[in-house]
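Take a protein:
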Amino acid sequence: MLVTIVDYGSGNLRSAAKAFERVATEQNLGADIVVTADADVVAKADRVVLPGVGAFGDCRAGLEGLDGMVQAMTEAVIDKGRPFMGICVGMQLMATTGREHGTHQGLDWIAGEVVAITPSDPALKVPHMGWNELAWVPGSHPLLNDLGENPHAYFVHSYRYQCADDRHQLARVSYGGPITAMIGKDNMVGTQFHPEKSQATGLRVIANFLRWNP
């Protein structure tokens, strides 16, 4: 099983790769984890992971700057239905539009827009940073299986994903109002939290993704 982690200059790649490698080894999953900026490799992948840190527009530009990458991702994920996971800004890029420092076009894979976090409590600071408890409907998605009681995940973000269809919101957290923590549609999922920094919860989500057969 070839799992590609797309390298488009957004950073945070090594920690994500190490987490996927650890899970693949410990769970005996026979997965080959490859960090790559090569569109041809991504097009052949069995699973695609898009990480991301930084501003929406910068990350979108970085992705577009790799020759053929968006087309290769579209071929693998949309045309062939290969499992896909977006992490943090990688998840946000799945939206129709991003509103960070202007308006930017997303991949439009799961309809919605990325907007600024505006907590109802002025004492809550932005960015939303640190550990927060996930909430979801049990049995709603395979990636949320076996997380145990009161699972917490690690977040660092100033913008949130606003799904056009609430059915695509798989999990949320509370931070002066509800914030989307995880999205999904068909063979695609995204986590606003960083699974590679979320200890047992994050490693379980990664293991579920590597075993997932949508």
